[in-house]
Amino acid sequence: MAWRLLLSTTSCIRTLHTLKPSPPPLSYHGSSNNKLSPRRPPFHSTNSNSIVQSSSFRGPLAPRGVAPCRASKRDAAPEEGQLVRNAQQAALWAAEAAYIVWLFLLPYAPGDPVWAISSNTIHDLVGLSLNFFFVLPLLNSVGIHVIEGPVFHPMSEGLFNFVIAWTLLYAPLLFTDRRRDRFKGSLELLWGFQMFLTNTFLIPYMAIRLNDVETKNALPKPSGLASAMTRGAFLVGLIGGGVCLFSAVWSLFGRSDGDFGGIAERWEFLQTYIGSERFAYAFVWDICLYAIFQPWLIADNLQNVKTESVGVVRTLRFIPVVGLVAYLVSLDYDKVL
């Protein structure tokens, strides 16, 4: 037993001799000549992943410049918005060119181009204008014949007055548009021309209002007409919306004492009318474009609406005419005047 104990002790001593003492840690206070010796960074590796790992270290020696760049994301948003606006402007100017060339100049659309307009078309336009908002037909129907209104098919009268009434509804919307300062001309004059030539003037305005401004200035003070239309937006909405509704009813049931047939015959006439008269065909374009521009403009100007009505107007803005009437009757003119 004694010799086994001696052998075990000898083996332990040899093992202890083979162990090397660990080097003392590097320190800034290790030398006697007060020279600082560098301390190793907490991560030392030639692996490409070491930089990513060391980014979690918090201290004065932590690597810099590896944090994600948030500024580039913030800068990307305005650039994307500018690209969208540029695309919208290009599409609007293309639509303006197509509108003028196709509806006014080329002979391929239904009816006569403006350079070959017939006397019958001029007669119809003048007569429909005399029946503006059905004033003369209604006066004549109740026995007031100071001026005799010309008689046209109820469908043609309804289509004409529907588009004109919708154009009237656009006036307070344009005069309260928060981007109207981009347009350097007279909005009142533009809307006046719009009453006669509809989207010939509205499409360019929709493109111009997308322009950027270098400095944000106060919106121009409204003129007398703009102020009156804005303050009377509630009444304008009721009148314009009422005429649009009456136009639809008149188209289907007006002049029942005349030989204009029932709803089926009137619908057939409308199809023939649009396919043969250039201005009737243009009204279809106007209705489609108005239906696009209405929710676009209302969405950009919801801040002009009374707070309690914002949700309703936001929902109804997609319904032709109805959404615009909702905007006008809910307009808080104190916010825009």
Automatic annotation (TrEMBL):
UniProtKB keywords: Membrane, Transmembrane, Transmembrane helix
The keyword Transmembrane belongs to this UniProt entry's keyword annotation: yes
Region (Disordered), start-end ranges: 23-72
Biased composition range(s): Low complexity: 45-56
Residue ranges crossing the lipid bilayer per the database entry: 121-139, 159-177, 189-208, 228-253, 279-299, 311-331
Xref: PANTHER family: TRANSMEMBRANE PROTEIN
Protein name: Transmembrane protein
